[in-house]
Amino acid sequence: MMKKIALLSIIMVISMGVAGCNNSAVPNDNNQTTNPGTTNSQSSNETGAIAIEEAKDIALNDAKLTRDNVTFIKAEKELDNGVEKYDIEFYSGNTEYNYEINAANGKIMEYNHDIKDFDIKNNQNSNNTAKITLEEAKNIAIKHANLLGEKVTFTKAERDLEDGVEVYELEFLYGNTKYDYEINATDGKIIGYTH
Fold first, then answer.
1. Is 13 in a helix, a strand, or coil?
2. Residue 167: which H helix or E strand, with range?
């Protein structure tokens, strides 16, 4: 009799364990279908959210470039003030392009491009509209600041493109004072300065 009760108890424990496993499997399946991460990815595809490759194509189309003549340096999804966006950066030649594209609808939120020319002295005859040299721009800034050139230490001196206008961006120190100048590369006029 004891053996029958023990055997019956073992069968009941095994049955409950199997039933418990089966019952726990059902909620897990339900959890998977209601998992916020899965739902978000499914709903984002259903709502027309764009993929990162589409965001790249939107940026390239706006810049009138193709993939074979650019080098991507950044392409990532970010959250900015509750809005998902793609931050896309790429180079074509010596021009850097930066785009922020809305991940939900593919609209361009912000963009800019800059000419990066780190060796201005050796490339004065490259394709540019600059009519004054870097040295002339430096002299204009020093003269405007009423300083002696031999006591000035330049920390930045580069040509850049701002709103379609080539400028020289200059930063230099004189003693403990820092000077910042922007000089039009075409006519040498001072666009802005601080010290």
1. helix
2. strand 165-174
Sign of the CA dihedral running 59, 60, 64, 65: positive
Instruction: Name the H helices within 35-124.
Output: 36-46, 52-63
Tokens of 11: 């069968």
- Write out the E strands in 10-152: 71-80, 83-92, 95-102, 108-115
Of 189, 188, 190, which is closest to residue 180 (Cα–Cα)? 190
Q: Is 70 exceeded by the pLDDT of residue 194?
A: yes
Buried b (16+ CB within 10 A) or exposed e, 23-44: eeeeeeeeeeeeeeeeeeeeee
3-class SS letters over 175-187: CCEEEEEEEECCC
CB 137 within 8 A of CB 183: yes
Tell me the three state secondary structure of residue 69.
helix
Q: What is the pLDDT of residues 90-143, one digit of tens each?
A: 888 878 888 999 999 999 998 887 776 544 333 344 445 668 988 999 999 999
